[in-house]
Amino acid sequence: MQDGLQIAGFAPDASASVRRERGNVVRLAVAQALAGANSTVVYATGAVVGDMLAPTTALATLPVSVFVVGMALCTLPAGAVAERYGRRTTFLLGAGSGVLAGLIALLAIVCSSFWLFCAGTFFGGVYAAVVLSFRFAAADCVAAARRPRALSAVMAGGVFAGVIGPQLVTHTMNLWAPHLFAATFVGQAAVAALSAVILAGVELPPLTAAHSSAGRPLVIIARQPRFILAVICGVVSYLLMNFLMTAAPLAMKLCGLPQESANLGLQWHVIAMYAPSFWTGRLITRFGASVIVAVGLALIAASSSVGLLGIDVAHFWATLSLLGIGWNFGFIGASAMVLECHRPEEKARVQSLNDFVVFGTMTFGSFLSGGLLSSFGWSTVLMLSFAPLLAALLALIGFSFRPAAPRS
Length: 408
What we know:
The chain is an all-alpha fold. Helix content is 82%, strand content 0%.
């Protein structure tokens, strides 16, 4: 009887733990959906508002590039804050940056200040950098065997971000006449505030300073072949996604296609980026992260190949859709590799280092994309994508022939 009571006593604890894990993942997925709208709003409006406010047309896309710079510069500080004060503190600071981004952008539009608008998109990049750490936080919430699924479940929230962002822009852009998009950034700030409320309820494992000091030096961790491979694959997947996505709408315009077709193509691209996340985690668990990354890189190569076949609407839409799916497999697979490279006390530093390298490299793609397209054309942009793809595939093949290192 006593044994039965003990067993019955354990069951609620285990059940509560599972409910807590699921609750954390659901909150992070919902926050991903809401916060992901921040990036969609910036990509949808940044160049248009930039063109309205910039002193010269050549600077029209600078606000979007500044957004990417904000992502790159704030990944390491966000990791340091998470390590010292906990992930939830970082999440709330990030959401605060999202609210600030919307309010600064609103003020910039009302006052017709281009540089103030760039400051707003910078804080939007800070917010986006924190949002992309949600996937690692979800992995921390669950047992090791369920980490790939938790990671991909949070990324799946981006499907709804791909709908929320465009709808927010569509229904608010003309509400504050004559200031186009002013009301849009009020809505963006409100959505960021709602995300903060949801994130406040996330319960994450604590990481004390004493615990984190027990980790290995970062240079030792970064020299692991598996970590180097994960960074290469993550960089190539994200770099090419941003490189081609940024150039595609302008390429469609230069080819004489209507703006409505470009908008719809981008919407399906965003959905393709995140919709596979419902299954990516299971595929990683079954086949391994390296196989899924290889499939992702192959899909990105197929995307560029389709783009080279023609310049009508169908070719652009197919290119953007394949690019989104390829990014999903490549980036989530590379993120799963990162989880294999650190001990629990090292996670914040290692994950923020990975994101810093990925987003820092992506910054160059953001700056180069428009110039290359204007100077050399869409076909040249597509052809250039094959070089980093080949490098990543060779790295995957080379790693597969290395003897497995003993795990700590």
